[in-house]
Amino acid sequence: MDDLLYGIHPVYEALVAGRRKFEELYISKGRRIKGIQPLLERARADGIPIQYRGPDYFESLLGRSVHQGVAAQVGDFPLVYEGTILKKAETDRELPLILALDGIVDPQNLGSLIRTGLAMGIHGVILARDRSAPLSPSVSKASAGAMEHALIARVPNLVAALKSVKKAGLWVVGAHVGSQQRVDEADFNVGLVLVVGGESKGIRPLVQKTCDYLVSVPQKGALDSLNAAVAGAMVMYEVVRQRMKDAHS
Predict the structure, then answer these.
(1) Number of structural domains the chain divides into
(2) Which residues contact 220 (CB under 8 A, 6 or more apart)?
(3) How far apart are CA 66 and CA 59, in angstroms?
């Protein structure tokens, strides 16, 4: 089943990534679109048909979505197996860093976590097939197109997938607000899977039990917890900080 990507960054990054088949590119007719030229040049070079349509056409396709006058009919997002993610770390000759998401149902949070993860150098993402937002055009938009470059595995059983990567020698660490171990007290200079839980319930109990240990972000103030995307970003930064520090010591 095809997707209708929208927004300059998701469409352009999908073109650059070259992982989806492009059927047609739609551009808003008579609208001045800042930054559109590199996208058009890439599409023409790739031989993709370009259709210029009026505002009503975009509204009929996308409603009130912030499309910036750009949309594209593309093939499904290409999923991978978790083994492919491990292979990437091996090929890159780096300590594996994988993001596992348990119950992230908000497209904005999912897109933000994928975008931050790629910025922090993750090798891929493992998602539960159920209890998570689909990898939709809105997630690609929320990630500013970063999703188009990510290796993502959707698994029927997250616990089984985590046990599988543990057998490959990786540690599984969960970001959990109730943990007494602070994130800055953990040692992340190992092959690692970081588990981030959903917006309302966090990491499910059975997934928690599968983790080697849990860490929390120290907080001040009256709020009970951080947004899932923010908490995940803070833990990923600490992982990268430690690894960069050790690499330069």
Answers:
(1) 2
(2) none
(3) 10
Do 98 and 31 share a structural domain? Answer: no
Tell me which residue of 86, 82, 71 sits closest to 140, measured CA to CA.
71
Q: How far apart are CA 171 and CA 213, in angstroms?
A: 9
pLDDT in tens, the chain (249 residues): 589 999 999 999 999 999 999 999 999 887 777 888 999 999 999 999 999 988 888 888 888 787 888 999 999 999 999 999 999 999 999 999 999 999 999 999 999 999 999 999 999 999 998 889 999 999 999 999 999 999 999 999 999 999 999 999 999 999 988 787 899 889 999 999 999 998 778 899 999 999 999 998 877 665 556 688 888 999 999 999 999 876 665
pTM over 0.85: yes
Q: Taking a C-beta distance cutoff of 8 angstroms, is the pair 196, 232 a contact?
A: yes
Helix axis angle for 158-167 and 82-92, nearest 10°, is 30
CATH number of the CATH domain containing 66: 3.30.1330.30
Residue with tokens 């985590």: 162
Most distant pair of Cα atoms in the chain: their distance: 59
Q: Are both 50 and 139 inside the same structural domain?
A: no
Same domain, 69 and 87: no
180 and 90 together in one domain: yes
Decide: 210 and 174 in contact? Cβ < 8 Å. Answer: no
